[in-house]
């Protein structure tokens, strides 16, 4: 309940730089408060008091709390974030009426997280960026790997809108008992509605889409902005055609899920994507892939119909007769070349679990799962699947499928050797182990419907692409990219400047099909809700029919 500063590596480095700069210029070198001495905290003798004051800049003090406004586009995901904190013992309050803090107004229902509580360090970890030091044993040496992720700020990963409050504050707040519950949604009703509009910004909208399509309703994504009853709706807004069976289903989902459906008397006109039920296959391997397991959990949570598919089933071919969409996570598809990095062809799974077990050593009912995706046998079947109209989503190292099918792209994180060959940048120059970075998004792409201009992505030494000059002519498009030399938001990014203008997400047309490449880990451990829409949009967009709404 009083001012406090967390002294992290970047603050120390800034002060050390200021001390060194003043020494180099022959400026003040005396001790604190004009004293003198050697062996001070910054390695330059006892530093003047002004340098300690730099570390107590009022603007850099820790917040007294965080406010999560109830009027943000995806408050349902904000509620999931709050419940994740409650599960770990964090005390959460909720506003019982509108209030003001620091001259800003907040609506009733907003969540308030005070930092004056027992698990304060965890509260700060979930909201504030991690600042991992440049842990390098000697200049030019290889960085020491962290035990796990270097940056993981959950509020960033989940795409939360929140405010840091630096001064003590209070208001009409009530402690939440048990878990937080988002308010029930509403279905606005008009006489003889043509249909209902649903925001694409809300992740749980996809639960509604899956239920509606599964029960025979018609769902569209509008390709252009639309206005109804004085309210503007962005491109990508979901339109549900009104039938006799529709209203009751929407009312049930509004009460159960908290979704809001707006009735519209006038049917939108112009182009739209008409969605349809899909047959989804999720790659996995014998013994299990952790990334695949997390995506399985995610598809279940959002009620996508799918089945798990193993390499032998892919090798058997005729994939278009069985699937509309195939999903490959990190470790599924081998690297196409050394310049790509990633896992070499022939590795079992992610190339870190040793050789595949002997066939006769496992129970007979599981032997049909043995095997790996290979360039020689599996990739031609995947290419055929794309040419015939299928959709493939590839995440992390499995984006190597782009090279196999001949897309005009290359690894953006390479250097040219004296021999004229390219090789991936060495770890001493570029190392980003499990951190949160910011990417810019082309929101006009259906793959990014519902997302903002910038998004925080989880990056674990992930692929970054450079598109060829003929990319657009060949139906290849950048959907998200790094537009800064300092994209780090939380964690550790040694050499992050190399990412500037590198492409993170690619969409491509291959024959009649669609191929979506996601370099960052958009589903990592079920945490980055802010990038789930890349996956959900990709699943539906590839096989959606473009129609004219009359």
Explain what this protein looks like in three dimensions.
By secondary structure, the protein is of the alpha+beta class. Strands 15, 16, 17, 18, 22, 23, 25, 26, 27 and 28 form a 10-stranded mixed sheet that branches. Strands 13-8-12-9-14-29 form a 6-stranded antiparallel sheet.
Brief summary:
The protein has 550 residues and is α+β, with helices and mostly antiparallel strands. 20% of the residues lie in helices and 22% in strands.
- Using only CA atoms, what is the Rg? 26 Å
Helix count equals 12
Q: What shape does the CA trace take?
A: globular
Pairing-aware structural class of the strands and helices?
alpha+beta
Parts with pLDDT < 50 across at least 5 consecutive residues: 29-39, 343-352
Q: Which strand-content bin applies to the residues?
A: 15-25%
* Biggest pleated-sheet summary: 10 strands, mixed
Calculate the terminal CA-CA distance, rounded to whole Å: 61 Å
Number of extended strands: 29
Mean of residue pLDDT? 92
Share of helix among residues?
Answer: 10-25%
